[in-house]
Write a structure and sequence with these properties.
Layout lengths: L1 H18 L17 E2 L6 E2 L7 E4 L1 H5 L7 H4 L6 E4 L8 E4 L10 E2 L1 E5 L2 E2 L6 E2 L10 E8 L3 H4 L6 E7 L8 E9 L3 E12 L2 E12 L8 E12 L5 E15 L25 E18 L2 E17 L3 E18 L2 E2 L2 E23 L15 E26 L2 E18 L8 E18 L5 E11 L3 H5 L15 E14 L3 E19 L10 E22 L2 E16 L29 E10 L4 E10 L2 E2 L4 H4 L11 E2 L2 E14 L2 E10 L7 E4 L8 E3 L4 E9 L1
Parallel strand pairs: 7-11
Antiparallel strand pairs: 1-2, 3-10, 4-5, 6-9, 7-8, 10-11, 12-13, 12-38, 13-14, 14-15, 15-16, 16-17, 17-18, 18-19, 19-21, 20-21, 21-22, 22-23, 23-24, 24-25, 25-26, 26-27, 27-28, 28-29, 29-30, 30-31, 31-34, 32-33, 34-35, 35-38, 36-37
Length: 716
């Protein structure tokens, strides 16, 4: 039935296409690989010549996001990336080539840059993406594969380099937008921007609300972002940024397999304990670039991030007050001209973080009425009171050679990371524990341009993924202290691929990779610590290989087909486990065995989208999203079906969803804008959006049914 419905919709689309085939529109543009410059390598490189896999999300893709609040909308056409957003906001799990799939929340080992300001803390952990207002983003560069030699522990899996829009071309302008949709969703947005002589500016504010598609899943958020670019002289440019985020999100939790019977259900603990996360964060940043001469320039960044965070669970209410300053400096020398060009760069960066955290025991109330509030459901029993102090320091050197059709890019970096926890509940003699890491990593890539259609590349890279702040602070031995048994996961990766384009008809990239990781991670739980407490250990080694493909095809100037496909084969290969992780006094679960697939990693992922401009004003698109089945657990007993099947089911069936969008561009006197309508999962399929290897079996997060969203945007 679903396939028949899709065929019917496709036939309607095709008839509309036939009716407008003589209309030529320039609303769908091809990307010229020799015109796009990428900077995620910390050096400017033409996309065509980049010696490694990288994807670009352009403004046209970002402008077609139905809600403009979720990274899975923005990165839907990027291969190699796995995203879940089970809470309908930006509390997401993101992995690149299987790196980062086990984190309880946030992004682990993936470097996040917003206008050049890093989001990751000293351990390489990014807690969320609340600071990104996707309606203001101009471009996203997605560097896939280990980039520790560029960004340290924050680049072990790859990099998301997010650039927001600058000020408009006239002295004063702006944008108003409002979106409403299913499950009580609303988003209101206002932006003021402009430019005058040696300055341009942009300030935006958005308010988001939603009830969520599951019980106890409501959320709201406020985002303020201000960006000013100064050009005081021809040699100096300065960018100043202020961002403020206030976000509240209820947590419906995962379900065990026996509880899963409908799309709406929340975990029985969610409402009585009022489980939620609350973030209030402000970031101030400065970036500067000074041109010393035609051959030399200097770049510098500085930032200060301060935030308050609270998370409640069935075990504790956790409070954190965090201060996170940092900065970087990079000197670039680019001698040579003609057919032989060189670039040599050296630099360093640092981050500090002070995390003042305490936990109070939770108190449930089964009669509590449902509401979107921050009611404190806790006792005065203090479970933890501690300060986690962290710092990271890295020095790096970069080299780029351009010799006609041949390009080479190399980098090397040394990182030192320090973590110290002070337990304020015990005496001074044993109050402090520490865990420190040091590592040198390198990367080398080459590319050769045979033609515009065939640009081949290959690279070798190393990844350095230290335990994140979240993992270190989850101590299986007690509520306080660090998990001192954890060690970094070290990866070596090789890839080979090709990209190219032919006129305005087709562009593509295909990459094959293989990655071996030592001391990979797994998750476990300890008796009596509640659902909140998830612990991490080193499981041994893993091997990952796969193929990532993207193609964009324009059979007509007003018709575009885009396809992103990923083949992934990720397995644990050996068990080299610290005895503490098998000690029954601490753990309830067994570590993964060699041959197990890594969790939440389907072998096949595909997203395809066809977009057609009926005229200069009307655009329609259809999309399909497919994922094959995947394994759920790292626990070898759960993986092998040796535990209660009413709670644990290791293999999760895949899904296939269909989406559609129509938009109308309008212009009235001095105003212009767009009206759009988007239908997600319009066949109303029931599916599992995401699973996580929760040792208690609360692993299953159902996805939303059919959702409809409407938007109107006014630009002036």
């Amino acid at each position: 039935m679903k396939r028949l419905l899709f065929v019917a919709v496709f036939m309607i689309f095709y008839l509309v296409f036939l009716s407008g085939q003589n209309v030529i529109s320039d609303t769908i543009k091809s990307i010229r690989l020799d015109e796009v410059v990428v900077t995620a390598n910390r050096l400017p490189v033409l996309l065509k010549n980049n010696p490694g896999s990288i994807s670009i999300v352009t403004a046209s893709i970002l402008n077609s996001m139905p809600k403009s609040i979720a990274i899975e909308e923005a990165l839907r056409l990027i291969p190699g990336v796995r995203i879940d957003n089970q809470h309908d906001g930006e509390r997401v799990h993101v992995s690149i080539r299987g790196q980062g799939i086990l984190t309880e929340r946030g992004l682990r080992g993936i470097g996040i840059l917003i206008d050049g300001i890093p989001v990751n803390d000293p351990s390489g952990f990014a807690p969320d993406l609340y600071d990104v207002d996707w309606g203001t983003v101009n471009k996203i560069e997605v560097l896939r594969g280990p980039a520790a030699s560029l960004y340290g522990g924050g680049g072990a899996a790859g990099v998301l380099n997010i650039t927001t829009k600058n000020g408009g071309s006239k002295p004063f302008g702006g944008e108003l937008s409002n979106t409403i949709g299913s499950n009580g969703f609303t988003r209101s947005f206002i932006q003021i921007d402009g430019s005058e002589k040696a300055i341009d500016y942009r300030t935006s504010y958005s308010r988001t609300n939603g009830k969520g598609y599951r019980d106890h899943q409501a959320f709201w958020g406020n985002k303020l972002y201000e960006k000013i670019n100064f050009y005081p002289t021809e040699k100096l440019s300065v960018t100043q940024i202020i961002s403020h985020t206030d976000y509240f999100q209820q947590n419906p939790e995962g379900l065990n397999f026996g509880q899963f019977d409908n799309l709406k259900q929340a975990n029985p603990d969610a409402r009585p304990f009022n489980e939620y996360q609350k973030t209030n964060r402000t970031t101030i940043g400065f970036l500067a670039k000074y041109k010393i001469s035609d051959l030399q320039d200097l770049e510098a960044t500085a930032f200060l991030r301060s935030w308050e965070y609270k998370e409640t669970s069935n075990r504790s209410a956790e409070y954190r007050n965090i201060t996170n300053p940092g900065g970087s400096i990079q000197y670039n020398l680019h001698p040579g001209n003609g057919l032989l060009k060189n670039n040599i760069s050296i630099g360093s960066d640092f981050k500090l973080q002070n995390n003042d955290m305490y936990k109070l025991q939770s108190a449930g109330n089964s009669d509590r009425p449902e509401s979107i509030d921050e009611t404190n459901l806790e006792t005065n029993v203090l479970l933890a009171n501690q300060i986690i102090s962290q710092s990271s320091f890295g020095v790096f050197a970069l080299y780029k050679l351009e010799a006609g059709k041949f390009n080479l890019v190399g980098s090397i970096r040394f990182d030192a990371m320090y973590n110290e926890l002070t337990n304020k509940l015990i005496g001074l003699d044993s109050a402090k524990t520490s865990k420190n890491f040091k590592k040198t990593s390198a990367r080398l890539g080459v590319s050769y341009s045979l033609s515009n259609l065939l640009n081949v590349f290959a690279d070798f890279s190393q990844g350095f993924m230290p335990p994140s702040t979240e993992e270190l602070a989850s101590n299986p031995v007690g509520y306080n202290g660090l998990n001192t048994h954890l060690v970094p996961a070290l990866s070596t990766s090789g890839e080979i691929g090709s990209r190219g384009y032919f006129n305005d008809l087709v562009s593509y990239e295909i990459t094959g990779f293989i990655m071996n990781t030592e001391n990979d991670f797994f998750r476990f739980k300890q008796s009596g610590r509640g659902n909140q407490e998830v612990f991490y250990g080193n499981a041994g080694n893993s091997k990952r290989y796969g193929i990532e493909t993207f193609i964009s095809y324009w059979p007509l100037k007003n018709l575009n087909l885009q396809v992103a496909y990923t083949y992934a084969n990720y397995k644990y290969t050996s068990a080299q486990i610290d005895p503490v992780y098998t000690d029954p006094a601490y753990v309830l679960t067994t570590p993964p065995a060699p041959g197990q697939y890594l969790p939440n990693s389907p072998k096949h992922q595909l997203y395809s989208e066809i977009a057609y401009s009926v005229s200069n004003k009307i655009k329609i698109s259809l999309g399909t999203e497919y994922q094959s089945k995947w394994a759920v657990y790292t626990d070898s007993k759960a993986y092998n079906g040796e535990l209660n099947p009413e709670i644990y089911k290791n293999w999760q069936n895949g899904f296939n969803l269909y989406h559609a969008r129509i938009s109308y561009d309008w212009k009235i006197k001095g105003l212009k804008g767009e009206c759009s309508l988007f239908a997600r999962n319009f066949t109303n399929s029931k599916y599992m959006a995401f699973t996580e290897p929760d040792p208690d079996g609360n692993s299953y997060q159902p996805g939303p049914g059919r959702e409809i969203f409407g938007n109107i945007t006014v630009k002036f």
